[in-house]
Amino acid sequence: MAERSQLCWERCYGVAQKRLPVLQWLPKYSLQWVQLDLIAGLTVGLTVVPQALAYAEVAGLPVQYGLYSSFMGCFVYCLLGTSKDVTLGPTAIMSLLVSSYAFHDPVYAILLSFLSGCIQIVMGLLHLGLFLDFISYPVIKGFTSAAAVTIGFNQVKSLLGLQKIPRQFFLQLYYTFYRIGETRAADAILGVLCLVVLVGLQQMKNHVSRAYRMERLSVRIGQLVVWATATARNALVVLFAGLVAYSFQVTGSQPFTLTGAVPQGLPPFQPPPFSKATVNGTVSFGQMAQAMGAGLAVVPLMGLLETIAIAKAFASQNNYQIDPNQELLAMGFTNLLGSFVSSYPVTGSFGRTALNAQTSVCTPAGGLLTGVLVLLSLAYLTSLFYFIPKAALAAVIICAVAPMFDARIFHTLWRVKRLDLVPLCVTFFLCFWEVQYGIMAGVLVSGLVLLYPIARPQIKVLEYEALLLQPASGLYFPAIEFIRETVQKHALSASRSRSVILDCTHVSSIDYTVVMGLSELLQEFQSRRISLVFISLQAHVLQVLLAAELEGFCYFSRLEDAVKSLKEELHRPNEALFDDSSDALLPSGIIQ
Fold first, then answer.
1. pTM of the prediction?
2. What is the pLDDT of residues 488-539, one digit of tens each?
3. For a tag site, which of 122, 196, 305, 396 has the least CB within 10 Å?
């Protein structure tokens, strides 16, 4: 009885460990881990606060919603996440999607977070992460590159201090140049200066060498100062710009466009809004969901895609394993619970995750300090956000999204496989029109590229007096007409009809439409009194063909047996083709 209870307890604890990964690393937590996690949490916290304010601008929401979206993921992921490096929060791509589907309305954004969380939790419980397999790498690159251009150019108006610029990309492009003469000199100078400083600090960080213990203390301290300054560059630049704006405010003049008043205090904990009151009446939940439309599919899937891709990359780099479905649950619960604190949808952040890894974070507990810093900022520092110039936030966003544009992918695909440029370019250009159209069109084109080899399989043709046809893959219904045309072209349309041997060595599957097509082909061969035989059929393919009871169906396990049978049937014992050797069948080419 005691052994059975012990076994039951072990199983329950194993299930709990799988669903609550914190139980796996918490018993092993050490003082050294505490130190490294605190450093990582502080470093990421100094980055996430200015980025959160900036990404809220990208989402078309008041800046405080960026902070509302930045702390729930820190606490939830600590309990449910399987990657020590990943940080959840607002990102450039997710903010762009929220801007497209939430209509710059916090009510829609919060409801979108709730519904996205519910969908992601269901997908995680049902292990539906496989849907990501249908989004190809060129589609992802096309979307992220277009998002980088869209988000970056969207900040040009703030960088130059321009007003009344539409958000639609092409209109934005036109009106930005049309109103370039209305540029505010102070905003432009400050914005360009912030850009220069951010780029310079990033280059310093890239070129600073790692400090080793054998080096002098002064060298190690200098390298640490440079690294810390470059790492906290976003916070330092925003702080510097805010101080400059405040100094002008004290003197009685204000040449910059400021962020403005930000409500102080933590967001109330309350259910997400399931309706919206307007001057024309109340918009119901169903109407709101219908208005968001494709966003209810695009936002959860893109959030999943971004998080899993980041988690897998850093898991591979740092030699540990992640559970994609558990990651999906962690993100789902973050979005679900986040909607109760006025958060818009969040996902994994590549930049902050990389920063987390660089500071040698040991466990997801590093995110706890990050979350606390965000809460402290909301509780006590929001009055200071008033003086942050919008040009400085625009510079932070531009520097954050610039690495997302990968110009090399176009050259790489041109060298590797030019056909993959089609979904890449379709996604890239259509995303400037509407994000959802770009992604859906890219996935559709990728599907067509994937299906083309199925509809037109590679067929090896060995040709002399008889034909040996060898399909390179499984036979499915889109390919049957191509198979029939190939056979008719080489065997039935010639001046003298020839027998055909269909080599099914590489045919691993077959469907009913193909069976019917082969039946019609067999009847056509019988009407001409020539043979169509099959060789090297795999067991399950043979079972399908035998179950169909095809008239005239004949098969052999080896090529030699088929050649011998045809030789006896044709009564041509001296024909060079049938010399009991498969070497007599010489290749004449490959049909694509």
1. 0.76
2. 777 776 566 778 888 888 888 888 888 888 888 888 888 888 888 888 888 8
3. 196
Instruction: Report the distance separating Cα 124 and Cα 84, nearest Å.
Output: 19
CA 117 distance to own-chain centroid: 17
Long-range contacts of 482-486 (CB under 8 A, 24+ apart): 482/455, 482/456, 482/457, 483/457, 483/459, 483/514, 483/517, 483/521, 484/517, 484/520, 484/521, 486/459, 486/461, 486/591
User: For 10-27, how does the pLDDT look when each residue is reduced to its tens digit (9 = 90+)?
Assistant: 677 667 777 789 888 988
Q: At what angle do helices 72-80 and 324-338 cross, to 10 degrees?
A: 150
Residue 267 clears pLDDT 90, i.e. is over it: yes
Quote the CA–CA distance of 465 and 495 in Å, as a whole number. 12
Tokens of 115: 């519904």
Q: Are 187 and 156 in contact (CB under 8 A)?
A: no
- Could you tell me which residues are beta bridge partners of residue 282? 277
Tokens coding 256? 């910059």
Whether 135 shows a pLDDT value over 80: the answer reads no
Q: Which of 107-121, 346-360, 377-391 has the lowest mean pLDDT?
A: 346-360
Instruction: Identify the pLDDT of residue 338.
Output: 96
Interior CA angle at 54 toward 53 and 57, to 5°? Answer: 95
In the chain, domain spans:
2-404, 409-453, 456-591
Residue 583: per-residue pLDDT: 46
**DSSP of 206-231:** HHPPPP-TTS-HHHHHHHHHHHHHHH
* Number of residues in the chain: 592
What does the DSSP assignment read for 171-211?
HHHHHHHHTGGG--HHHHHHHHHHHHHHHHHHHHHHHPPPP
Contact 327, 88 (CB under 8 A): no
pLDDT > 90 fraction of the chain, expressed in percent and rounded: 26
Residue type present at position 441: A
Side-chain-side CA neighbours of 303 within 13 Å: the count stands at: 39
pLDDT in tens, 166-215: 877 888 888 888 888 888 999 999 999 999 999 998 888 777 665 555 56
For the beta carbon of residue 586, count every other beta carbon within 10 angstroms: 10
Count CA atoms closer than 13 A to 552's CA, side-chain side: 16
SS (H, E, C) 426-491: HHHHHCCCCHHHHHHHHHHHHHHHHHHHHHCCCEEEEECCCEEEEECCCECHHHHHHHHHHHHHHH
Q: What is the DSSP letter of 132?
A: G
Amino acid (one-letter) located at 282: T
User: What gap in Å lies between CA 92 and CA 525, rounded to an integer?
Assistant: 62
**What CATH fold (topology level) applies to the domain 456-591?**
Transcription Regulator spoIIAA (3.30.750)
Burial class (CB in 10 A: 0-12, 13-18, 19+), 570: middle
Place of tokens 């990943």: 86
In whole angstroms, what is the distance from residue 313 CA to residue 307 CA? 10
pLDDT value at residue 577: 41
d(CA 99, CA 151): 11
Tokens of 545: 């063909």
Q: Tell how far CA 360 is from the center of its chain.
A: 25
